[in-house]
Design a protein that fits this description.
about 15% helix, about 35% strand, two-stranded antiparallel sheet, mainly beta
């Protein structure tokens, strides 16, 4: 006999790897939602998303500058809250988080301020593969790579977006349009020139901050 069937290996043969690398629509959960504060004072959240297929990806969104000016990802964070039926998010709690160390090629644990309300709840996300210019000590190296950025969210069970949930709609229509416009984003100008790294959110139909009529 040359070889005996390895059932576990056969099942894993059609898996695309541990990490999410492709633009697309995914359903899963955030296994990490860590409060971030940049050296400039800009506030944000660092996420680890794990799909139902077992793949994962890390990405961060920045929601407000130190002076309180809101960034576009502020809307994305509140879309996530609406899709999770959260009216508020509690203050961070220090806990154990896990991240992948590309040097040692293994997961490492560390203490982090975690937003537990956003973690381990079903969520759908739109992810986009974006090209970027690599830097070392904030100096361009001349090399380019690809990273995953968060572009939108939807309710996992219904595929309703935040605006549809808040408007009490029951038929998902917005998500299909968002997916249709989703694609890899190459760097437009690889030799100088400005580039945008802010994520866009096509789901902005609910603008009032009055939550008295909120359906959840």
């Amino acid at each position: 006999m040359f070889m005996q069937l390895d059932v576990a290996a056969a099942k894993q043969a059609d898996q695309t790897g541990k990490f999410i690398k492709d633009t697309g629509k995914y359903i899963g959960k955030f296994t990490k939602a860590e409060e971030l504060t940049a050296s400039t004072g800009t506030k944000g959240v660092s996420f680890t998303f794990e799909s139902n297929d077992g793949q994962s990806v890390n990405f961060s969104i920045y929601i407000a500058k130190a002076n309180g000016e809101k960034l576009s990802s502020y809307q994305t964070l509140h879309a996530i809250m609406a899709c999770m039926k959260l009216r508020s998010v509690s203050v961070p709690v220090t806990g154990v988080a896990t991240k992948y160390d590309f040097t040692t090629k293994q997961d490492v644990q560390y203490q982090a301020p975690l937003l537990l309300d956003l973690m381990n709840k079903p969520i759908g996300v739109l992810l986009q593969s974006c090209e970027y210019a690599k830097e070392k000590d904030r100096v361009p190296t001349g090399e380019y790579g690809w990273k995953i950025e968060l572009q939108g969210a939807f309710e996992a069970a219904t595929e309703l977006t935040a605006s549809e949930i808040l408007l009490n709609k029951t038929k998902p229509e917005v998500l299909a349009r968002m997916v249709a416009h989703l694609g890899d984003r190459p760097l437009k100008n690889k030799v100088g020139g400005a580039r945008s790294t802010q994520s866009n959110n096509d789901d902005q139909g609910y603008r009032s901050n009055d939550i008295s009529g909120c359906p959840f």
